[in-house]
Amino acid sequence: MLEPTLNSELPVIPGKRYFTIGEVSELCLVKPHVLRYWEQEFPQLTPVKRRGNRRYYQRGDVQIIRSIRELLYEHGFTIGGARQKLEQDNGKSAKSAGTDNSQSIKQIIGELEEVLALLKS
Fold it and tell me: What are phi and psi of 20, to 5 degrees?
């Protein structure tokens, strides 16, 4: 297991669209074989597989891996516990995103009605 002092010192994620397993390994300070294992254990983790079964991770995948790493190495979760925590967090974020979207839509409708009233006058 890694020392807790090293866990919070992860490199910045570059502005690329796709990352190889080696790059993700360096960005998240996790060995490639661990990443392949986590793919089997966490359904949220789905890298794109191309020619020759090469994995290409996207920015969201890297962030999920960092979350998994934090839960396992810093907070001491088991694999099953980390899986449940991620599922709970995803459910909460999806609900809050839906609430945020409906509030934004209501605000936009209100603004459009004001513009329409100005145009009619």
Answer: -80, 170
Angle at the Cα of 6 (from 31 to 35), degrees rounded to 5?
20
Longest Cα–Cα distance of the chain, Å, equals 69
- Determine the structural domain holding residue 33 and report its residue range: 4-120
Q: What is the pLDDT of residues 21-56, one digit of tens each?
A: 999 999 999 999 999 999 999 998 989 988 888 999
Place of tokens 């789905």: 46
Q: What is the count of structural domains for the chain?
A: 1
Q: How many beta carbons lie within 10 A of that of residue 68, not counting itself? A: 25
The CATH number of the domain holding residue 62 is: 1.10.1660.10
d(CA 26, CA 5): 17
